[in-house]
Structures are given as C-alpha cells and as structure tokens.
C-alpha cells in the first residue's frame, strides 16, 4: 500500500489540482520493484498504475522526452499486457509525448528531428485508434484522441 497505491493516489490527486511537480514528488516512493511486478495479496496485477500516472505527470509538466519511458514501460512490461486500461492508454500517452517533443523541437528550429517526432506521433495515434476501433464512440478520451489526431493531419 505504501509503495504502490498511496503514492499513485496522491499523485493523481495532485494532477487533478494541476500540480505535476507534486505528483512527481509523490511518485518517488513508487519507484521500487513493486511498481513493475504483481501485487501478492490480490488476484490481479498492478497494471503499472504508478508508472502510468508518472507519465501523465511528466506530460502535464511539459517534459515530453522524460515521460516517454514511463509510457513505453507500460506498453512493454508483461504486467500491462493483460486487460489493464493503463496499457491501452499508454499508446495515447506515447502519441502525446511525441507530439509535445515535436512541438518543442519545432520551436527550437530542429526541423528534421521535429519531423521524425511528428511521424512517431502519427504512428502512435494510429496504434491507439486501431486498438480502440470497436470502442463506444462516445468515450471522452477516444473523442479527444480523434480530435488530436485530426488536428495533426
């Protein structure tokens, strides 16, 4: 509880208050091996919730390059490959991270790198939208993702 769920809950509350720095501070306690493994006292897996929330906190803080490993870990770790919603939403997190990185690189006039980040952005959005192709079209996060993707076209 102290090293997995409490830090994640505190971080989510901080994000709800638009305070990504506080969220990242709260999540420092959740960097133990417990974060990447199963929870021994319940029948399901942790779904890497602290890892996912860390990615959301980095995104809210505008740290595109820093947050990609959090979302990538959610995509590649076996614990998230089951029916966890965090694994599915990590695709969207990767898309948003790449979009942020593309905008940052464009502002720094690093056009070639910005174009590569934009290509990765489009691919990640396509992955997310493909994964959610049969989802209820009225789901808010799906609508947001479709709008974000359309704005990139």
Layout of strands and helices, then pairs:
Blueprint (H helix, E strand, L loop, with lengths): L4 H12 L3 H7 L22 H12 L3 H13 L8 H23 L3 H21 L8 H13 L1
Task: Provide an overview of this structure.
This protein is 66% helix and 0% strand. The protein has one domain: Serine Threonine Protein Phosphatase 5, Tetratricopeptide repeat (Alpha Horseshoe), CATH 1.25.40. The protein is an all-alpha fold. The longest helix is centred in the middle third of the chain and has 23 residues, at 85-107.
- Bin the helical content: 55-70%
Average predicted confidence as pLDDT: 80
CATH topology: Serine Threonine Protein Phosphatase 5, Tetratricopeptide repeat
- Overall shape: it is globular
Q: Helix tally?
A: 7
Quick one: how many beta strands? 0
Structural class: mainly alpha
Give the SSE string. HHHHHHH
Largest sheet: none
Uncertain stretches of 5 or more adjacent residues: none
CATH class annotation: Mainly Alpha
CATH architecture annotation:
Alpha Horseshoe
What is the subunit arrangement here?
single chain
Strand content: under 5%
Radius of gyration: 16 Å
Distance between the termini: 44 Å
Number of domains: 1
